[in-house]
Give the backbone structure.
Amino acid sequence: MSVTATALAPGRPARATVRWSRRAVGALAFAALIELVSRTGLADREFLPPATEIVARMGTLALDPAFRAHALTSLLAWAVGLGLAAVAAVPLGLLLGSVPVVDAATRSVVEFLRPIPSVALIPLVALVIGTGLQLRISLVVYASLWPILYNTMYGLRGVDPLAKESLRSYGFGPLSVLLRVSLPSSAPFITTGVRLAAGIALILTVSTEIVAGRGEGMGVFIYFAGIAVPARMTDILAGVCWVGLFGVAVNALLVAFERRAFRWHHARLGEQT
């Protein structure tokens, strides 16, 4: 690239500002559409309150200690479940991706368990371990395990064989090759798996709370707002929006971490494209 083209090319901060500005405009346009549909009577305000009322209720709930207790309970289940899934899935993925015999022996079991919806396991898990925080954590672990596991295995398949052979030629054993070459090369894929699992964990946390319908949690708050007479639709949508904002924030943080920690990986992808 010439000096002139480099000078004229927008910097990374400028591109990020443009990207986030477009997203903000899209969100504001969507909120304005909801406001218009509700205010003009195109939709019943009982089922679709104006966006301004939803946002105002979100602010009120943020100051409510009871609502914050619901949010912290869900956050705890989400964080613990996601963390346990990562701790279990990464070593398991390294094992299956590095030892073909073990991968072949366990493939049928893994392929049988992976498609089972976690929500379908709620009655069974509730009978075995109860309906408290342990229920949510267990289902979050189960659902979050698979994207991290498969991304770890996929990352191992993309490791440069020449780099591994170079280390072996200097007398390094399989474990050293795994820790010095395979794991660092797979780290961007593992991080992507964690990012995907974070969204799945959030969905499972809230949906499990809604189905269980007891204790504390964002799903419990939404559930009781829905069964109230009349239904508190503003509370339901405000709770849903808070969950969505948390998901957006977590995803943005993980994407930023990926780009900073693995710049070499993104640079290589840019060269390939």
Notes: The CA atoms of residues 70 and 216 lie 5 Å apart. The chain has two domains: 1-48, 64-272. The two ends are 15 Å apart (CA to CA). Residues 174-212 form the longest helix (39 residues).
